[in-house]
Specification:
By secondary structure, this protein is α/β, with parallel strands linked by helices. It is built from 17 helices and 12 strands. This is Alpha/beta-Hydrolases superfamily protein.
């Protein structure tokens, strides 16, 4: 086939993808509107109170909290803070505007164009006040009442998903046996998983292959992030970067007296790894990022919105882009998926084991199912999109102020986060070593090559002894 023919075929494929995507997302927009009404009714019946969603339009009442308190926006220490009488403070900089300000559905745009062509041509956005209402009604509720119990009616109620200790994360710890006469522990290693995953992503892959010699000198920590796996899943949290980092600090660094440590992080966890490295510049000895979601923002673009469009392009193909688009753009549709899969995860796990005759380990499925919609929705927006304007600064700090080794792994076949993300890290931190693994994607960059990765990680750790 000639070059002209291939080019024509590719153009036809793109046109078909555009056309099909328009129709599919038009239908999803309509379904989302119906689900919005359905969940408002369901929440009211099940919990006795309306739960604001990010579909709602701002109203004059949005300047007051649910208990009638006044919301005040002020500048403190260079940060915008929203406060309320008898309420805790919410740093507005922690909240991604992609939660409440994004392009309207196709139906809304069409309606605006019909009623006001000039307004539609200027670009239509949705601005939603419930971002403040949600915080005030829950965590910062002026009357102190728990309007939204955790777990919610639409979440799983099992003990694994709802730990008794709600103040700390679940942490898998592997340490040298006490009194074995071996070398004293010199340093620690912190493993951080990615989006809708769990500590099992590391404990069932890499950790079993860490050599006895490496274990004799290091403690290995693998966390379940806030809202995922066996960690707490508060219904009143907005799952901001600040909350995630502080929970890791409280659950690992402070609780276990961590002084010097390496960080190994996958995907979304790479963002938290950078934030921790900047927070503990003298303590971090090496930084290993696997498939980091770093998208340098072009000049003139709004970073959060640019990352949203890049990660979730509202296209049906490739399939992983379709899944990301549904997760990012449709609050109620993604909640429905969580109800079907996560609320009934024990049933799905049992069915999978029976179907495979108990021959397949289900750690990836366990991690995927054990989260709540509130956790996944806010983490996706507030960490992936919300960090768009922060990663550049963190990488500059790593480049200029930290002495730690930086190693980046990426699969050549990763369709979710292209390999250019890792090359962009290298461009920002020239000393970073980028290792592109042929034939591996977003998951198989670790799963399937865990023995090799464990050996390579030990080499990285030993260089910083």
């Amino acid at each position: 086939m000639g070059a002209a023919a291939r080019s024509a075929l590719a153009s036809a494929g793109r046109a078909a993808n555009e056309a099909v995507s328009f129709v599919v997302f038009l239908l999803l927009d309509a379904l989302e509107a119906l689900l919005c009404v359905a969940y408002r009714v369901a929440d009211y019946v099940a919990e006795g109170a309306w739960r604001p969603c990010y579909c709602a339009r701002p109203s004059p009442a949005s300047s007051s909290g649910p208990a009638g308190g006044k919301i005040v926006v002020s500048e403190r220490g260079g940060s915008k803070v929203v406060s309320m009488l008898s309420a805790t403070r919410l740093h507005l900089e922690d909240i991604s505007d992609t939660l409440y300000a994004r392009r309207r559905s196709v139906l809304a745009v069409a309606g605006a164009a019909f009623s006001s062509p000039r307004r539609a041509a200027a670009g239509v956005t949705v601005h939603s006040a419930p971002i403040v209402q949600m915080m005030l009604r829950g965590k910062a509720g002026g009357d102190g009442s728990n309007k939204y119990p955790s777990p919610r009616w639409s979440d799983c109620h099992c003990a694994n998903c709802n730990p008794a200790d709600t103040g700390r994360l679940f942490v898998h710890v592997e340490a040298p046996p006490a009194g074995d006469g071996g070398v004293a522990t010199e340093e620690d290693v912190l493993f951080i998983h990615g989006f809708i995953s769990s500590s099992g992503f590391w404990t069932q892959t890499v950790l079993p292959h860490v050599s006895p010699e490496a274990r004799s000198r290091r403690r290995l920590f693998a966390v379940d992030l806030l809202g995922f796996g066996r960690s707490p899943k508060p219904a009143d949290s907005l799952y901001t970067l600040r909350e995630h980092v502080e929970m890791i600090e409280r659950s690992v660094i402070e609780r276990h007296g961590v002084k010097s440590f390496h960080i190994v992080a996958h995907s979304l966890g790479s963002i938290l790894a950078l934030a921790l490295a900047v927070r503990y510049p003298a303590a971090v000895k090496s930084l290993t990022l696997v498939a980091p979601p770093y998208f340098p923002v072009p000049r003139g673009e709004v970073g959060t919105q640019y990352v949203l469009r890049t990660v979730a392009p509202r296209r049906v193909w490739p399939a992983i882009a379709f899944g990301a688009s549904v997760a990012c753009w449709y609050e109620h549709l993604s909640r429905t998926v969580s109800i079907v899969l996560c609320k009934h995860h024990r049933l799905w796990e049992l069915a999978f084991r029976v179907f495979t005759l108990y021959r397949v380990r289900t750690y990836l499925m366990d991690g995927f199912f054990c989260h709540t919609h509130i956790a996944s929705w806010h983490t996706l927006h507030n960490i992936i999109c919300g960090s768009a304007g922060k990663i550049d600064g963190w990488l500059e700090v790593v480049r200029d102020q930290l002495a730690c080794d930086v190693t980046v792994y990426h699969g050549s076949d990763d369709e979710l986060l292209p390999v250019q993300c890792s090359h962009a890290v290298k461009a920002k931190v020239p000393r970073a070593q980028v290792r592109v693994i042929d034939g591996k994607d977003h998951v198989t960059i670790v799963v399937g090559r865990q023995k090799d990765l464990a050996r390579e990680l030990e080499e990285i750790w030993d260089r910083r002894r």
